[in-house]
Queue: 2 jobs
Job 1
Amino acid sequence: AASSVSGKTYVIGTDTTFAPFEFRDAGGELTGIDMDIIRGIAASQGFAVEIKSLGFNAALQALSSNQVDGVIAGMSITDARKEIYDFSAPYFESGVQIAVAKATTDITGYADLKGQTVTAKTGSEGETFAKSIADQYGFTVKSLDQSATMYEFVKSGNAVAVFDDYPVLAYGISQNNGLKTVTDKEPGGSYGFAVNKGQNPELLAAFNAGLADMKSSGEYQAILDKYLKDPT
Ligand code: GLN
């Protein structure tokens, strides 16, 4: 199966800024864990990729309508998504967490969100989770399309908290983005590479084969270390 990808070019959708998984480096080039993984697998499996930085929800829509062949975007493997997409083997364990502005002292748990507005990304696991507890804790969810916009929304006081994936919050906080976490992460989905249901099975097989090679050669761990060990 892996040989049938040979020489082909696949269009891959991704998020805009979801560091350390995808973001632009100082020179404006798309970089990050997801980018290194998909480019490394493409190189080892003999196919080419054209990466489209679409935004998370837009990438999922593009996949549903076959405008892209695959999505790698820190995308969690969920049961609901498995109905409409086919996923690779998991490659990173994640989970949702909340963050608040650094100066905020009166929010230490979900109960403190009562009567407040929070933000989460349109179409994300964070949004689904926030909405699932919104009634119970009495808060409102304002969905936005990009992590960077959500963080600004919190820092400007338009929302008191953001629900996002913990490794992305942790990375941003390590770069002094003005936020802090106040709760433990929720156990969550693992990230997978997705194709549209029943489409591009050879691409999915090649991804899984390439990922397995990358793990056994140590290249996968080297990619994680590059972005997570000493983020600068
Ligand atoms: N992991 C989350 C999800 O799949 C968020 C992904 C993202 O924002 N790029 O919903």
Note: DSSP finds eight helices and 14 strands in the chain.
Job 2
Amino acid sequence: GAGTATAVAHPNIALVKYWGKRDERLFLPRTDSLSMTLDIFPTTTRVRLAPGAEHDTLTFNGAPATGEARRRIAAFLDLVRERAALGHRAVVDTVNTVPTGAGLASSASGFAALAVAAAAAYGLALDATALSRLARRGSGSASRSLFGDFAVWHAGVSAGTAEQADLSSYAEPVHAAPLDPALVIAVVDAGPKAVSSREAMRRTVGTSPLYEPWAHSSGADLADMRAALGRGDLEAVGEIAERNALGMHATMLAARPAVRYMSPASLTVLDSVLQLRREGTAAYATMDAGPNVKVLCRRADAQRVAAAVRSAVPGRAVHIAGPGPGARLLSE
Ligand code: DP6
């Protein structure tokens, strides 16, 4: 009913990465990025207005949200309250199905689901573009989880006012010819991140001599990626994704002090991907702000790729994902 809404959203993995902000408060990125939304590990978020309550009540998988997660969600709700001109606190229950310690980012699915549910609960009638812009304010990559399959997030205009920049930075679907892709996700290390992605981005943009060249070449990667998706060329999609991701990690290795997310096990998985290619299997690696490796391949090859990865790093969890749906409201 009115004042209560539940939404579900899925994680996304960038094939052309978002790495670096030009405005931290507004979550405006330095570059455009492009991702595939997954069909596994949804986040479901229920928002219920609590008129008269003094505080937001936030639970995450049944336990009270604390620390940085609590602060980010409360700040996000403040933004929604300001837009809706409605000050009510809320009860927010989030159920996240990413296996605990899988080291996969849940902020993208989390803030996409929260944006959709909170907008509905606070009575904001927002279209998909406005929801994407709103989700961006919780976590940049969440802007892309509004959409299924492939989505591009526009960095937006840099000249002009902050409002013009904010209005022009949103995600939208990208056309792709049939690809039948899969992402094989190797969880090489389930421990907490050494450096948060926010801090790592800041340090990279501020100190890495490789950052500007990567940001520049990322523009070309995006154009090439759109063309490769448009013609359904999985080999090209994979090659572009791999070079873009390894380049991003190179920018971090050159930061001062260096940020290194790759572990020995990550490199072992990267070796197994090279070996698969030598044997004629289209398999390409991408990595985010952690040691896990995601391998893009054809759906028909996914089991074989997963088996190769499992034997490279025995005992680690390996998940297979396909393209998934965009964020949506569940009917109450
Ligand atoms: C490496 O979206 O988690 O996964 O905007 O600070 O919340 P914040 O960062 P976040 O960063 C994602 C970085 C990445 C690449 C990507 O998803 O494009």
Note: The chain is about 40% helix and 25% strand.
